[in-house]
Amino acid sequence: MRLIYQSGYSTTVHREGDELLAESYLLSSVMEATATLRVDASRFRVRHARWDIYRSPGGSLNRGKELPQLNGIEAYFQEARQLLQAVGDEGNGIPRELFNECVNGIIQAETFLYAERGFRSPREYEEFWEKFYTNSCRYYKHLERTTQTWYDFVGDPGRQGRLFNRYKSCQVFRTMDGTLVANGSFVDSFHELGVSMLLDASGLITAISGNFIRPPDQICVESEKHLASLPGRFISDMSKKDVIAAVGGAEGCMHLMDIVNEVRKAAAAALAEPRPDALGMLQ
């Protein structure tokens, strides 16, 4: 078995006084890029944004850019769509993808900023999320069946300094008979899970398995059953929306969908061109 493709995203959110610095890095067999967002810690309004691509196929995408047009936009749910639209498709969409990782990190870091965000207690913050996120994923769709609250799981909310860390990685191996083994790992400050996908030489998914190591609640583990809908599908025919639907939609886990989608992209890239120096990044 030979390793033929790798990719990984690293995202951190660090508090510096009254600001948050969110940074996301992509390292893969063909790409090296980063995006940074500096926002105020109470309103999440962007104060500075920049992206850089250091390595790309043939150097075609290599450049960097500051984005002053993002200043003042709230890096949070609804306004985040405006932020990502303003980033646009430059750099083959890689900067937009990295800024999205930054926004997701900021939203996760909010767990430790509930007071600055206007909530009087951890429980009031939990109640906001229970209402705001109702029916969005398996956890928030079945709150009556959960066994612990968010802060029961997280513990002491008085975290300082580096508020949130996330790392996602994929590796694709080719066996002697042309079969691909595509593995994905997702680990962050609150979650830990992974998947392994088998594909034939044409890109047909023949098997997939995955499991949680560290879920917020056991109800999240039930999302694993949706992976059974993927075998029999061709990886080249699937989009991110297809992955979301196949892995359960609102009855699934967004993080499981995320890592399955990363595995999809990595496997499709490996199938598209077996030479590591010529592989393309799929969006």
Description of the molecule:
With 283 residues, the protein is α+β, with helices and mostly antiparallel strands. It folds into three domains: 99 residues, CO dehydrogenase flavoprotein, C-terminal domain (Enolase-like, domain 1, 2-Layer Sandwich), CATH 3.30.390; 35 residues, no CATH class; 114 residues, Sufe protein. Chain: A, CATH 3.90.1010. The protein is 27% helix and 31% strand. The protein is built from eight helices and nine strands. A nine-stranded antiparallel β-sheet has the order 5-4-3-2-1-6-7-8-9, with helices on one face. Helix 1 runs antiparallel to helix 2.
Can you count the beta strands?
9
- Total of domains: 3
Enumerate the spans where pLDDT stays under 50 for 5 or more consecutive residues: 275-283
End-to-end C-alpha gap: 27 Å
Question: What about the largest sheet?
Answer: 9 strands, antiparallel
Bin the strand percentage. 25-35%
CATH topology-level fold name of the largest domain: Sufe protein. Chain: A
Measured as a percent range, the helix fraction is: 25-40%
Written as H for each helix and E for each strand, in order along the chain, the element string is EEEEEHHHHHEEEEHHH
Would you kindly provide a brief summary of this structure?
With 283 residues, the protein is an alpha+beta fold. The protein contains eight helices and nine strands.
